[in-house]
Design a protein that fits this description.
Layout: E1 9-15, H1 19-33, E2 45-51, H2 58-67, E3 72-76, H3 83-93, E4 98-101, H4 113-118, E5 126-130, H5 144-157, E6 171-174, H6 175-178, H7 191-198, E7 206-210, H8 225-269, H9 271-276
Parallel strand pairs: 1-2, 1-4, 2-3, 5-7
Antiparallel strand pairs: 4-6, 5-6
Helix pairs in contact: 1-2
Protein backbone atom coordinates (compact mmCIF):
# COMPACT_ATOMS: atom_id res chain seq x y z
CA UNK A 1 0.00 0.00 0.00
CA UNK A 2 1.22 3.51 -0.80
CA UNK A 3 2.78 5.60 1.94
CA UNK A 4 1.24 8.86 3.11
CA UNK A 5 4.06 10.88 1.52
CA UNK A 6 3.46 9.35 -1.94
CA UNK A 7 -0.27 10.07 -2.15
CA UNK A 8 -1.02 12.89 -4.57
CA UNK A 9 -4.62 12.06 -5.45
CA UNK A 10 -7.65 11.34 -3.28
CA UNK A 11 -11.05 10.06 -4.43
CA UNK A 12 -13.80 10.76 -1.88
CA UNK A 13 -17.00 8.72 -2.04
CA UNK A 14 -19.93 9.67 0.25
CA UNK A 15 -22.04 6.59 0.89
CA UNK A 16 -25.12 5.43 2.71
CA UNK A 17 -26.27 1.83 2.28
CA UNK A 18 -24.16 1.41 -0.84
CA UNK A 19 -22.32 -1.77 0.15
CA UNK A 20 -23.38 -3.58 -3.01
CA UNK A 21 -21.62 -0.95 -5.14
CA UNK A 22 -18.35 -0.54 -3.20
CA UNK A 23 -16.44 -3.51 -4.61
CA UNK A 24 -17.18 -2.78 -8.29
CA UNK A 25 -16.56 0.93 -7.68
CA UNK A 26 -13.13 0.49 -6.08
CA UNK A 27 -11.94 -2.24 -8.44
CA UNK A 28 -13.01 -0.26 -11.52
CA UNK A 29 -11.29 2.91 -10.24
CA UNK A 30 -7.98 1.13 -9.78
CA UNK A 31 -8.35 -0.82 -13.01
CA UNK A 32 -8.68 2.51 -14.84
CA UNK A 33 -5.68 3.93 -12.97
CA UNK A 34 -3.55 0.89 -13.83
CA UNK A 35 -4.10 1.17 -17.56
CA UNK A 36 -0.92 1.94 -19.50
CA UNK A 37 -2.47 5.15 -20.83
CA UNK A 38 -3.60 6.44 -17.43
CA UNK A 39 -2.20 9.95 -16.75
CA UNK A 40 -2.38 9.29 -13.00
CA UNK A 41 -0.43 6.50 -11.22
CA UNK A 42 -2.51 4.06 -9.18
CA UNK A 43 0.14 3.92 -6.47
CA UNK A 44 -0.28 7.68 -5.85
CA UNK A 45 -4.05 7.45 -5.39
CA UNK A 46 -6.27 6.66 -2.42
CA UNK A 47 -10.03 6.07 -2.19
CA UNK A 48 -11.90 7.28 0.89
CA UNK A 49 -15.41 6.01 1.60
CA UNK A 50 -17.32 8.32 3.96
CA UNK A 51 -20.16 6.21 5.29
CA UNK A 52 -23.07 7.50 7.38
CA UNK A 53 -23.20 4.47 9.68
CA UNK A 54 -24.96 2.24 7.14
CA UNK A 55 -24.34 -0.98 9.07
CA UNK A 56 -24.82 -2.88 5.82
CA UNK A 57 -21.47 -4.63 5.56
CA UNK A 58 -19.60 -1.70 4.01
CA UNK A 59 -16.87 -1.81 6.67
CA UNK A 60 -16.27 -5.50 6.04
CA UNK A 61 -16.19 -4.98 2.27
CA UNK A 62 -13.56 -2.24 2.59
CA UNK A 63 -11.52 -4.38 4.95
CA UNK A 64 -11.51 -7.20 2.39
CA UNK A 65 -10.49 -4.79 -0.38
CA UNK A 66 -7.60 -3.58 1.79
CA UNK A 67 -6.45 -7.17 2.27
CA UNK A 68 -6.46 -7.56 -1.50
CA UNK A 69 -4.07 -4.62 -1.82
CA UNK A 70 -6.39 -1.76 -2.74
CA UNK A 71 -5.56 1.61 -1.18
CA UNK A 72 -9.04 2.26 0.20
CA UNK A 73 -10.24 3.23 3.65
CA UNK A 74 -13.58 3.97 5.24
CA UNK A 75 -14.67 6.70 7.64
CA UNK A 76 -17.85 5.79 9.52
CA UNK A 77 -19.75 8.79 10.85
CA UNK A 78 -22.09 8.12 13.76
CA UNK A 79 -23.09 11.66 14.77
CA UNK A 80 -23.37 13.37 11.38
CA UNK A 81 -25.54 12.82 8.32
CA UNK A 82 -25.77 14.28 4.85
CA UNK A 83 -24.06 14.29 1.48
CA UNK A 84 -22.35 17.68 1.64
CA UNK A 85 -20.93 17.25 5.12
CA UNK A 86 -19.67 13.78 4.12
CA UNK A 87 -17.80 15.26 1.16
CA UNK A 88 -16.30 18.00 3.33
CA UNK A 89 -15.19 15.42 5.90
CA UNK A 90 -13.56 13.36 3.17
CA UNK A 91 -11.71 16.37 1.77
CA UNK A 92 -10.51 17.26 5.26
CA UNK A 93 -9.14 13.74 5.73
CA UNK A 94 -7.64 13.44 2.24
CA UNK A 95 -3.89 13.09 1.88
CA UNK A 96 -3.69 14.17 -1.76
CA UNK A 97 -3.50 17.73 -3.07
CA UNK A 98 -5.88 16.79 -5.90
CA UNK A 99 -9.25 15.68 -4.51
CA UNK A 100 -12.12 14.17 -6.46
CA UNK A 101 -15.69 13.52 -5.32
CA UNK A 102 -17.93 10.92 -6.94
CA UNK A 103 -21.09 9.00 -6.09
CA UNK A 104 -21.00 5.41 -4.90
CA UNK A 105 -23.84 4.29 -7.17
CA UNK A 106 -21.68 3.87 -10.32
CA UNK A 107 -23.59 6.60 -12.18
CA UNK A 108 -20.28 8.46 -12.25
CA UNK A 109 -18.25 6.03 -14.38
CA UNK A 110 -14.99 5.10 -12.60
CA UNK A 111 -13.23 4.99 -15.98
CA UNK A 112 -13.30 8.81 -16.01
CA UNK A 113 -11.40 9.10 -12.72
CA UNK A 114 -7.87 9.30 -14.25
CA UNK A 115 -8.74 12.12 -16.66
CA UNK A 116 -10.67 13.98 -13.96
CA UNK A 117 -7.74 13.80 -11.54
CA UNK A 118 -5.21 14.73 -14.23
CA UNK A 119 -7.24 17.82 -15.22
CA UNK A 120 -6.41 19.55 -11.93
CA UNK A 121 -3.30 21.72 -11.69
CA UNK A 122 -2.12 24.92 -9.98
CA UNK A 123 -3.89 26.87 -12.75
CA UNK A 124 -6.98 24.64 -12.94
CA UNK A 125 -8.00 24.30 -9.31
CA UNK A 126 -11.44 22.87 -10.02
CA UNK A 127 -12.56 20.10 -12.38
CA UNK A 128 -16.17 19.42 -13.23
CA UNK A 129 -17.62 16.35 -14.84
CA UNK A 130 -20.20 17.84 -17.19
CA UNK A 131 -23.24 16.22 -18.79
CA UNK A 132 -23.49 19.16 -21.20
CA UNK A 133 -20.21 18.65 -23.06
CA UNK A 134 -19.76 17.99 -26.76
CA UNK A 135 -20.89 14.54 -27.80
CA UNK A 136 -22.78 13.84 -24.58
CA UNK A 137 -26.51 13.12 -24.62
CA UNK A 138 -27.45 14.57 -21.27
CA UNK A 139 -29.09 12.07 -18.92
CA UNK A 140 -30.30 10.01 -21.91
CA UNK A 141 -31.44 7.10 -19.73
CA UNK A 142 -33.37 9.24 -17.26
CA UNK A 143 -37.19 9.54 -17.27
CA UNK A 144 -38.66 12.81 -18.52
CA UNK A 145 -39.45 14.19 -15.05
CA UNK A 146 -35.83 13.67 -13.93
CA UNK A 147 -34.56 15.51 -17.01
CA UNK A 148 -36.91 18.42 -16.30
CA UNK A 149 -35.80 18.61 -12.67
CA UNK A 150 -32.11 18.47 -13.65
CA UNK A 151 -32.42 21.16 -16.34
CA UNK A 152 -34.53 23.39 -14.09
CA UNK A 153 -32.03 23.13 -11.23
CA UNK A 154 -29.21 24.04 -13.61
CA UNK A 155 -31.07 27.08 -14.95
CA UNK A 156 -31.67 28.38 -11.43
CA UNK A 157 -27.91 28.27 -10.77
CA UNK A 158 -26.81 30.02 -13.98
CA UNK A 159 -26.53 33.54 -12.45
CA UNK A 160 -24.13 32.15 -9.84
CA UNK A 161 -21.46 30.52 -12.03
CA UNK A 162 -20.35 30.11 -15.64
CA UNK A 163 -19.73 26.38 -15.10
CA UNK A 164 -21.78 24.33 -17.58
CA UNK A 165 -22.97 21.74 -15.04
CA UNK A 166 -22.70 23.06 -11.47
CA UNK A 167 -25.26 20.45 -10.40
CA UNK A 168 -22.81 17.63 -11.09
CA UNK A 169 -21.73 15.58 -8.11
CA UNK A 170 -18.69 14.40 -10.10
CA UNK A 171 -16.09 17.08 -9.45
CA UNK A 172 -12.66 17.75 -8.04
CA UNK A 173 -10.88 20.56 -6.26
CA UNK A 174 -7.29 21.29 -5.32
CA UNK A 175 -6.53 21.29 -1.61
CA UNK A 176 -5.38 24.92 -1.59
CA UNK A 177 -8.67 26.05 -3.18
CA UNK A 178 -10.73 23.97 -0.76
CA UNK A 179 -8.97 25.53 2.22
CA UNK A 180 -9.99 29.01 1.02
CA UNK A 181 -13.69 28.22 1.28
CA UNK A 182 -15.51 29.67 4.28
CA UNK A 183 -19.00 29.03 5.58
CA UNK A 184 -19.68 25.88 3.57
CA UNK A 185 -23.28 24.70 3.83
CA UNK A 186 -23.13 21.26 5.46
CA UNK A 187 -26.87 20.82 4.88
CA UNK A 188 -26.76 21.79 1.22
CA UNK A 189 -27.54 19.32 -1.53
CA UNK A 190 -24.98 20.40 -4.14
CA UNK A 191 -21.58 20.84 -2.52
CA UNK A 192 -19.87 21.47 -5.89
CA UNK A 193 -21.95 24.62 -6.38
CA UNK A 194 -21.24 25.70 -2.81
CA UNK A 195 -17.48 25.27 -3.33
CA UNK A 196 -17.47 27.06 -6.69
CA UNK A 197 -18.94 30.14 -5.03
CA UNK A 198 -17.33 30.08 -1.59
CA UNK A 199 -13.85 29.06 -2.72
CA UNK A 200 -14.08 31.95 -5.23
CA UNK A 201 -13.10 29.74 -8.17
CA UNK A 202 -12.45 31.92 -11.21
CA UNK A 203 -14.10 30.87 -14.51
CA UNK A 204 -10.70 30.24 -16.15
CA UNK A 205 -9.68 27.97 -13.25
CA UNK A 206 -12.43 25.44 -14.06
CA UNK A 207 -11.58 22.43 -16.21
CA UNK A 208 -14.52 20.47 -17.62
CA UNK A 209 -14.58 16.78 -18.59
CA UNK A 210 -17.67 15.61 -20.55
CA UNK A 211 -19.18 12.34 -19.32
CA UNK A 212 -22.37 10.33 -19.68
CA UNK A 213 -24.26 9.09 -16.65
CA UNK A 214 -24.00 5.40 -15.91
CA UNK A 215 -26.86 3.26 -14.65
CA UNK A 216 -27.32 2.69 -10.91
CA UNK A 217 -26.39 -0.91 -10.15
CA UNK A 218 -27.56 -1.29 -6.54
CA UNK A 219 -29.61 0.71 -4.01
CA UNK A 220 -32.06 3.48 -4.75
CA UNK A 221 -31.95 7.15 -5.70
CA UNK A 222 -31.56 9.72 -2.91
CA UNK A 223 -33.58 12.36 -4.82
CA UNK A 224 -36.68 13.25 -2.79
CA UNK A 225 -38.97 16.22 -2.33
CA UNK A 226 -37.09 17.10 0.86
CA UNK A 227 -33.81 17.14 -1.06
CA UNK A 228 -35.27 19.51 -3.67
CA UNK A 229 -36.47 21.87 -0.94
CA UNK A 230 -32.98 21.83 0.56
CA UNK A 231 -31.57 22.74 -2.84
CA UNK A 232 -33.87 25.76 -3.11
CA UNK A 233 -32.82 26.83 0.38
CA UNK A 234 -29.18 26.43 -0.63
CA UNK A 235 -29.73 28.55 -3.75
CA UNK A 236 -31.28 31.34 -1.67
CA UNK A 237 -28.28 31.29 0.67
CA UNK A 238 -25.80 31.37 -2.22
CA UNK A 239 -27.60 34.22 -3.97
CA UNK A 240 -27.38 36.26 -0.77
CA UNK A 241 -23.72 35.24 -0.26
CA UNK A 242 -22.72 36.34 -3.76
CA UNK A 243 -24.98 39.33 -4.37
CA UNK A 244 -25.67 40.76 -0.90
CA UNK A 245 -23.11 43.56 -1.29
CA UNK A 246 -24.67 44.51 -4.62
CA UNK A 247 -28.11 44.54 -3.02
CA UNK A 248 -26.82 46.81 -0.25
CA UNK A 249 -25.22 49.20 -2.76
CA UNK A 250 -28.40 49.34 -4.83
CA UNK A 251 -30.44 49.99 -1.69
CA UNK A 252 -28.14 52.86 -0.70
CA UNK A 253 -28.35 54.36 -4.20
CA UNK A 254 -32.14 54.08 -4.07
CA UNK A 255 -32.33 55.81 -0.69
CA UNK A 256 -29.99 58.62 -1.83
CA UNK A 257 -31.96 59.16 -5.05
CA UNK A 258 -35.22 59.13 -3.10
CA UNK A 259 -33.82 61.70 -0.66
CA UNK A 260 -32.66 63.97 -3.48
CA UNK A 261 -36.02 63.64 -5.22
CA UNK A 262 -37.98 64.48 -2.07
CA UNK A 263 -35.65 67.37 -1.27
CA UNK A 264 -36.10 68.78 -4.77
CA UNK A 265 -39.86 68.33 -4.64
CA UNK A 266 -40.29 69.92 -1.19
CA UNK A 267 -37.96 72.72 -2.19
CA UNK A 268 -40.06 73.41 -5.28
CA UNK A 269 -43.32 73.76 -3.33
CA UNK A 270 -42.00 75.65 -0.28
CA UNK A 271 -43.21 79.27 0.35
CA UNK A 272 -39.71 80.59 -0.21
CA UNK A 273 -39.63 78.90 -3.57
CA UNK A 274 -42.97 80.48 -4.50
CA UNK A 275 -41.76 83.99 -3.47
CA UNK A 276 -38.70 83.60 -5.71
CA UNK A 277 -41.03 83.07 -8.64
Amino acid sequence: MATRQSIQYSVVVPAYRENGNLRPLVTRIFAALRRVDSPVPAEQTEVIIVDDNSRDGSVETVRQLQQEGFNVRIIVRTTERGLSSAVVRGFQEAQGDNMLCMDADLQHPPEYVPSMLASMSPTHTFVLGTRYGKGVEMDKDWPVHRRIISSGARLLALPLTTASDPMSGFFGIRKEAFLKARGLNADGFKIALDLLIKAHVAPNAIAEVPFSFGVRAEGESKLTGKVMIKYLEQLAELYWYKFSSLVVVLAIIFVVLLFLLLRTWFGAVSPDAKQRY
